[in-house]
Design goal:
- The relative contact order is 0.11.
- This protein has about 525 residues and is mainly α.
- The chain is built from 18 helices and 17 strands.
Length: about 525
């Protein structure tokens, strides 16, 4: 395990990776960077440079000679086929073990990061651990009392923070330049462990993750940003998504190169913003577009996202609460102050009285963007919104985002996967729990019911569960860089949680599987 290098495939294989990806030697660019080198990268590159001339067939033969296929790389779905005799609930319960991977002894030059405990993969091309996926997957694990996998997930998140200072986007070396939405504090809330040693260790990990997001923040002046922290014109500190690299993503190399070339912008700026969008989890969406209408105008690093900052507000509150419980009062007071300041900054810059909605803001000006999207419901989920704001957001959702099959992601149709007409499991959960928190139980139940009916309908018609759905036509979602994937961790988790009557204790959840 200790032999795994921290350099990415792009750093190890440079011009070879460029040729493989730009020639599209494999239909999915992620396949090559997940392959297992059979010998030291320097030896492979030495052999490669001795190839005087080659065509695609020669290059493919070279790859086959020097690399093994990715472990667990089944040509079809990762998960299991539906059994027509199984209800949706029974199918989800039976799928967990098909998505579990045990810690492996990795090849010395593998791009996979070693993990200390079993982990649940999302499915399809996503054959490793992913950060924000894990929380939404765990909701289903909690409903099915899979304490073993809940504690294993917490152990993996905690040990990754201890090793790297943050939880990477996924457990691959090519993800080490970025994280994902910071849900570690939510992951911890699903644990039943209460031991004092675990509590101190987890508080330390929360503090470490917060430092990752706030690096250099005390040094910033109005209008400045450094990595993931930005100082707004009034001196408020908010956060943004970022990545340590300004190169094309290893796993989507050709896509990034072609997008950047067509953008008319400096290539490195485009690469950085695409990577930042990948850190957001919303890769890709009109939410990040600038003055242009296409992917090349993505300006993620210019935006202080409402969801990221609401999660950091939740993180700061969680640190204060856990520090108080452990008697670390100085830390508790400091983080209560940080949470209060962030709440004020979000109320000032990410709420519009004129438009009666929450949204992202441009950190350089403090002005909101025009995008109407489901991320604006995070203030309800984290309890940051006022009652009147929650009411206004309920009206906006009914008017703009609610579809026959669940919640739309945005109101813009671009062909990107985090845009209309697609809906995603995490956003259904955030919306339903947010509205339930503010007493909008009927709307919460409607979102849960419509989403789960979409999942059930497609399960009964097609067999598997999918990573995303078209919530207008109630079919598997589409758009983006790759075909819709099957499996699927967070869809299983959210659908299973919605099938639990305890989610809406006042009335019971109408999405209960009546076939049981």
């Amino acid at each position: 395990m200790s032999g795994t290098p921290l350099s990415s495939p792009a750093e190890q294989f440079g011009e070879l990776l460029h040729e493989v990806q730009m020639r599209r030697l494999f239909p999915d660019g992620k396949y090559f960077v997940d392959m297992e080198p059979r010998r030291h990268p320097a030896q492979i590159m030495s052999c490669y440079r001795r190839l005087v001339a080659y065509d695609d067939a020669t290059l493919a033969a070279f790859i086959a000679e020097h690399f093994d296929p990715p472990p667990n790389a089944a040509p079809g779905r990762v998960g299991r086929n539906g059994d027509p005799r199984e209800t949706l609930l029974e199918h989800i319960r039976a799928t967990w073990d098909h998505l579990v991977r045990e810690p492996q002894i990795l090849g010395k030059f593998s791009s996979a990061l070693p993990l200390s405990a079993p982990y649940v993969v999302p499915g399809g091309r996503f054959r490793e651990f992913y950060y924000w996926d894990s929380y939404f997957t765990m909701l289903g694990l909690r409903a099915d009392a899979r304490e073993d996998l809940i504690e294993a997930t917490i152990e993996n998140c905690t040990s990754l923070i201890e090793r790297f200072g943050f939880v990477p986007n996924g457990s691959r070396t090519y993800y080490l330049g970025r994280s994902q939405p910071p849900v570690y504090y939510l992951v911890l809330d699903l644990s039943l462990e209460v031991g004092n040693g675990a509590a101190h260790r987890r508080l330390d990990a929360l503090l470490t993750e917060h430092s990752f997001w706030m690096a250099d923040a005390p040094l910033l002046r109005p209008g400045e940003a450094s990595r993931r922290a930005a100082c707004l014109p009034d001196g408020s500190i908010l956060n943004r998504y970022w990545d340590e690299s300004d190169r094309p993503r290893d796993e989507s190399y050709a896509e990034d190169v072609l997008t950047a070339r067509a953008s008319g912008r400096p290539l490195r700026d485009v690469f950085r913003d695409l990577r930042a969008a990948a850190e957001s989890g919303w890769d890709f969406s009109s939410r990040w577009f600038g003055d242009g209408e296409g992917l090349g105008s993505t300006r993620t690093s210019s935006i202080a996202p409402i969801d990221l900052n609401c999660l950091l507000f939740g993180l700061e509150q969680a640190v204060a609460r856990r520090a108080t419980a452990l008697g670390v009062n100085e830390i508790a007071l400091r983080f209560e102050t940080l949470a209060r300041r962030r709440r004020q900054a979000l109320q000032t810059h990410c709420w519009s009285d004129a438009q009666q909605r929450f949204g992202d803001c441009l950190w350089s000006t403090g002005q909101m963007t025009t995008s109407i999207n489901a991320a604006a419901l995070f203030p309800l989920f984290t309890g940051l919104a006022l009652e009147r704001q929650a009411q206004a957001m309920a009206e906006l959702v009914r008017r703009e985002l609610l579809a026959p099959g669940g919640l739309r992601t945005t109101t813009v149709r671009t062909g990107e996967q985090w845009d209309m007409p697609n809906g995603w499991a995490p956003l259904q959960w955030i919306a339903a729990m947010g509205f339930d928190r503010y007493g909008q139980v009927d709307l919460a139940r409607t979102i849960a019911e419509r989403w789960t009916s979409t999942v059930r309908r497609d399960y009964e018609d097609l067999g598997p569960l999918f990573e995303k759905y078209d919530v207008e036509c109630q079919v598997p979602g589409r758009g983006g860089e790759y075909p819709v994937q099957m499996g699927f961790g967070w869809t299983n988790g959210v659908a299973r949680a919605f099938l639990d009557d305890a989610i809406f204790p006042v009335h019971g959840c109408p999405t209960r599987d009546l076939q049981e």
